[in-house]
Every structure is written in structure tokens, then in C-alpha cells.
Request: fold
Amino acid sequence: MNKKQKKALKKIIISIACLIVIKVSEIFLDYENLYIFGLPGGRLLLFLLYMVPYLVVGYDILKKAAKGIANRQVFDENFLMAVATIGAIIVALAYGSDYTEAVAVMLFYQIGELFQSIAVGKSRRNISNLMDIRPDYANIEEDGELKQTDPDEVAVGSIIVVRPGEKIPIDGIVTEGTSMINTAALTGESVPRDVKANDHVISGCINMSGVLHIRTEKEFGESTASKILDLVENAASRKSKSENFISKFAKYYTPAVCCSALALAVIPPVIALLLGRDANLGNWIYRALTFLVISCPCALVISIPLSFFAGIGGASSNGILVKGSNYLEALSTTGTVVFDKTGTMTKGVFEVTDVCTSGQYDITREKLIEYVALAECDSNHPISVSLKNAYNKEIDRDRVHDIEELSGHGIKAKVDNKTLLVGNERLMRSEGIAVTPPGTIGTLVYVAVEGIYAGCIVISDVIKEHAKEAIDSLHSVGVKNTVMLTGDIKAVADDVAKKLGIKAVYSELLPADKVAKVEELISSGSGDGKLAFVGDGINDAPVLSRADIGIAMGALGSDAAIEAADIVLMDDDPLKISKAIRIAKKCMRIVYENTAFAIGVKLICLLLGALGIANMWVAIFADVGVMVIAVLNAIRALFVKKI
Reply:
């Protein structure tokens, strides 16, 4: 418990103790006939005694209600509680009835508020665990000694030292040392991974064993930990339709019930007087006050946002970062999931599996690989990396000039003063060069030298370990349509889609073609639900932004993914997609349960209160009891480990 919660608990305990003492005293003292200093003051004394527990537990509510009235923000739960309890006290004074109900209403309301505060605190602590990824300092080595420095003050390119047990403060490359790092705070996975010299590491991970020297690649504010923290902290600002509905509902609902309570207190007595009957004003005022207590919309106003907050917190503990409850709500109705191929459903780790020369240009297989590696020297694309790995020699950049990247086609460059074209069949066709595809299935990189077709390099990608299981899991969770979009050739795309069980595949697409295809799928209503696009977050930013829900896969350390996607999966396991949908569905199920339960009980109790069947004790259950039950149900959204 925090200080505020402990203070609230203390007030509740004092109020209950005072109430017990007063009730016991009523057994032994006849306050009706008690004289003080020879005057009949027993009833006044009893009133003053009851005001002690009432003010102890209700002072802050009365204060908030007064502030709301002063600020012209009258209609809230504090106003309802203040009016209802003060009215009940006045009725008790006027008709000589018991003050217990008025004190009990305030007491149980405060118990409910405390319970709600503890529940919200629990879900916040869940997200606070994620906030622990923020490092407090960075170690800079000066004169053979380590000096702790504010991470904000570390310049790009500096060498920082991370000792065992410390958090990596800034993204960078390991220059010296080997170790194991714990990525659990980012990915939800407990299995550590090995790192060594030349490996990329990201902020927020914990160094477990050896000392690491890291050359920083980014400023602290641009590092992964900072980006993720900004994402999580801003999630509350993006509200779902359900939350917006509840906010609007409360805005109009509270004034409506206040007017209804006033009408209930005034109209029946006036009609009775006009008909010449007993107005029974006290009874109708009591009904109106009971009506006010019942009407308090706490259960809805508290439990619905709490359900989403808990859902986002539960997802984050599993390495699934959701940028807002609106995306969680949309994810629960996903009918179509569209995948990128490379880096999403495949590992993006390419290997050269075949090299074919054409016979049209006099060149050996080794020379063809050499030319291609030189032309691709400035590219970090996975295919380019595999081509340079196949060459496996130091690249002499002085031999390469005029490199031009042709988006969606390939690369044009001068190598040894010869014009090279390296890319797909579309590039060759646009240059009027006829090619002969080999029989091998794989990604085909065609090469032309001085406008003559020189040969083809076949590159194969590896399907991810859980990719097939992920597609089956999506179908089982209610996703009706799975689609794959790729710039790869049709043969490769069809082969991967068949192995994975993906229902539709569109190949040889440029980035703009992917956007157009997603728009076509959205407009056709394919899957009868929202469309989610899953990409690696680096080359797919336009499609991630255009889809109903953009999901970034394998986003560990990817700025583009965190910026463009609505949901970020902090590791590259495609099984997390179906888990994210299950979490969203559970969260929405809880939201609907709480909405139906709270409104249903309120309506029944409001009717009973208006008819005089329900008293203040029923009102207390309808308000505090329903809120407690709804909050208990809401925090179930936190528990998603076994989903």
C-alpha cells in the first residue's frame, strides 16, 4: 500500500471503530430520554456522535464535492455521495430515524474506493516492472577507472562499460567481451541470449555474466528503452470506443439521474397533496436519496478503463506492447491477418544455394559473386548481406562507383568501370534484358554486365520455427483469412505459403503495391472483421500505417517498428500474434461482462428504489458492491501468462 491508501485505510478503521462504540452505547443508554445539564439533549448528543465517523470517513468526499460545485463541475460521484448522505442525515434529524445508513453509505463508498485504488495500483505495478528497463547511469572509463555518468550526457560513438547485473543503458555494438543478456523485461522471455564482439545490443536488457564494452550508436533519448517507455506511458491517451462511450455516458447519465431523483422527491408528494392525500414527504425524499446512491456510475467509470489498463499491462508483461486501448479493442475483432514474408514468417537469414552463369557473358561463378558483392557493398538488406557473406573477402570499395538503389527492383552500379545491374526479373525486363530462370526454388538475383545477361544467384530463406504453428493458432482463434504479401517471386512465395497453410498469397509486389493490396482487402471486407498487417517494421512502415492494426514483428531495437506500428511484438515469435488476439478478446469479454452487469444491476435497483422496495443498504450494494465485483473482474485481464 502507498501512503494515500494507508491513510484511507486508517480513516476507515477509525470510522468503523467509532460506529461500533456508538452502537454499543445505544444498547446501554436511552438517548431519547437522556438529559444533559438538566436539559433533554440525548438526541443532539447522538447526532454529534454519529457525525464523528461520518466526517472522519467522508470529509474528503464532501471537500471534493464542494470544489466541484465551485468549479461548475457539479455532477460526479462525489456530488452524488454528498447529496445522498447529507440528505439522509437531514431526514433522520427531521423524522427521528437512524443515522447509521448515512454513515454506512459513506463508509462503504470509501472502502470501495480503497479497493479500486489497490486494484489499479496492482495493474500499474505490472507496467512499472517494464519501467525498470530505464537505466539510471552509464559507466564511462576514464584514466583506468569507471565513472558513472547520466545516460543523457553520453555522446554517440562513446565506449561504455556494462558490468554483470547492470542494465545496458544505450543501444550499441559490443566491441569487447562476451556475456549472456536477459531480455525478459522487453520480450517476456526468460531464456537469456549470448552476445560477443560485433553483436548489436539494445538498452533495457540486463547483463548477466561478463563485462561488456559497448560503442553507442544512438543518443539515450533515441534508444530502445526510451522509445518503449514513451510508447507505454502514452497508451492511456488512445481510448477505445468503449471507453469513450463510458465517458460520454457518465457525462449525460449523472445529471439525468439527479433530475430524476429530484422529480421523485417532489412530484409524488405534490400529486398526493392535490388529491387531498398525505404527502408523506419524508418517505419520498428517502426514496430519492436511495435512488441517488444506487445511480452512482462508479462501477462503469472505474472498471472499464481498468479492464483495458490491465489488458495492456498483461500484454506488456508478455513482450506485447499495445499503443492504446483502441488498438486492443480493434485486435479483438480481427478477421484478416496479412503477413510480410521476409523477417516475419521467415528468419530473414539468407544463404546462397546456387550460382548459375548464362553463357552469354564470359564470367566464372566466383567472379559473378565478386561483382555482385561489390555492387551490394552499401546495402544492409538481408539478401545483400548473404551475397557479401558468400563472397567472404574484404570488399575494395575503390572498385565501386555510382551506386544507385532502384526501389523494389535492385541496384545499378559501376564495378571496375563496368555497368552492373543486380536485382529481380522486373529490373531486367525494364532494361530489355532477357533472362532464363533456373529450376531451383528460391529468391532469384539476376545479374547483367554491360547490358548482357551474365547469370543468376539463387538465395534461400529459412521459415521460422513456429511459423506454421502460428498460422494454425490464428485460424483456431477465429481469424478467417490469412494472406501473405511479398516482393519475392511467385514460385518462392507460393512454396512458403503452401508450407505454412496461408490461404492467399500475392507476390512480386513493390512497397506501393502492398499498400494498394491492403486497401483492396479492407474495402472488400475480407474476413468480416478488422485487418491486421504483420511486418518487420523496417521496410513496411507505409503498410503498417494503412492497416486497421499494424503489428511489428521482430522489432527488438527497430525504431521504424516502434514508430509505425500500433502493436509491437518485442521478439520475432509469430505465435505472439495469436496470443495478442486472445488477450484482446479476454479483455473485451471482461469489458462487456462489466458493462452488462453494472447497468443491469443499476436498472433493477433503481426501479426498486423508486418503488420504495430498496432501502439504503440495497443502494450500498448497488453502488459499492457492484463496483468491487466489477473491479475484481477487471483485474483478471492482468493474468494472461497461460492464454
Observations:
- The two ends are 29 Å apart (CA to CA).
- The first strand starts at residue 35 and ends at 36.
